[in-house]
Amino acid sequence: MKIALLGYGRMGKTIEKIATERGHEIGYKTNTKLDEEILKQQDIAIDFSIPEAAFDNITTCFKLGVPVVSGTTGWLDHLEEAHKSCLKHKSAFIYASNFSLGVNLFFELNRKLAQLLQPYPNYKASLTEVHHTKKLDQPSGTAISLAEDLMAQQAYTGWQLTNDNQIKSGSLAKPLAITAIREENVPGTHWVNYKSEIDEISIKHKANSRDGFALGAVVAAEWLEGKQGIFNMQDVLNLHEKK
Ligand SMILES: NC(=O)C1=CN([C@@H]2O[C@H](COP(=O)(O)OP(=O)(O)OC[C@H]3O[C@@H](n4cnc5c(N)ncnc54)[C@H](O)[C@@H]3O)[C@@H](O)[C@H]2O)C=CC1
Ligand SMILES: O=C(O)C1=N[C@H](C(=O)O)C[C@H](O)C1
């Protein structure tokens, strides 16, 4: 496939390495405004840019008939609008807050654990994420996905970042606490913890590098080729069928 990399930073460069190893061609890469003439000659676009640019990049691709794999976090207020644009232009789209196989299995574990602990409100849940100091958004997109899945099974009314009272979502009547920690060179670590007076149950995913995110994004792009519509990583990894 001829791939456009929208965002050529840490992830764009890792995706280039993995896509090339898998026999793809990088036909276009950019860190700024899109060149529509070159972009429309590509088979697919992979957007790992910045929150402010993602929506425009993605909808420009749909307008040009270029399917999109998007991993940029921090722009999800506009996700529904992006879906509408994809459907309007009969294009194809996959968004994931995390493309790695390990995290997508971890998402399944999180949903299962939240369901198992539903009858036991004495276990208080919390989330922690650790990322590198260059990360622009907090909490991470992955932590928000974990929180949303957990809250679908448990009696929390919203989530709140423990280290910044301004950052929250939903009602604070019974908030789920998320702690975001920033340390040099950490690719991404997430914990879900349940604590009672008697004991604690924790699950953790730690990325050792960015390769898993990049491989997942390239596999998603390969899977999306020739399809039309809106998909997610559960579709790509066939996780619906494994339940
Ligand atoms: N879904 C997933 O699996 C993962 C998602 N991410 C997310 O991907 C995004 C990028 O992460 P990194 O590569 O670490 O960041 P980065 O800061 O290294 O790269 C972002 C690049 O986008 C460029 N950029 C700025 N404006 C642009 C525009 N208008 N169009 C295209 N590019 C533009 C910047 O110059 C920069 O080079 C972040 O939102 C991050 O949270 C990161 C890792 C995994
Ligand atoms: O910015 C990052 O680096 C990462 N961002 C994603 C997120 O916000 O969850 C995925 C991964 O954790 C790395």
From TrEMBL:
Similarity section: Belongs to the DapB family.
Record bears the keyword Amino-acid biosynthesis: yes
HAMAP family: DapB
Species of the source: Mesonia sediminis
Residues involved in NAD(+) binding: 36, 71-73, 96-99
Span of domain Dihydrodipicolinate reductase N-terminal: 1-99
Listed name of the protein: 4-hydroxy-tetrahydrodipicolinate reductase
Binding sites annotated in the UniProt record for (S)-2,3,4,5-tetrahydrodipicolinate: 132, 141-142
Active site: 131 (proton donor/acceptor), 135 (proton donor)
Annotated ranges, domain Dihydrodipicolinate reductase C-terminal: 102-237
Catalytic reactions on record: (S)-2,3,4,5-tetrahydrodipicolinate + NAD(+) + H2O = (2S,4S)-4-hydroxy-2,3,4,5-tetrahydrodipicolinate + NADH + H(+); (S)-2,3,4,5-tetrahydrodipicolinate + NADP(+) + H2O = (2S,4S)-4-hydroxy-2,3,4,5-tetrahydrodipicolinate + NADPH + H(+)
Principal EC category: oxidoreductase
A Pfam family assignment: DapB_N
Pathway: Amino-acid biosynthesis; L-lysine biosynthesis via DAP pathway; (S)-tetrahydrodipicolinate from L-aspartate: step 4/4
Gene3D superfamilies: Dihydrodipicolinate Reductase, domain 2, NAD(P)-binding Rossmann-like Domain
A GO MF label: 4-hydroxy-tetrahydrodipicolinate reductase
Subcellular compartments: Cytoplasm
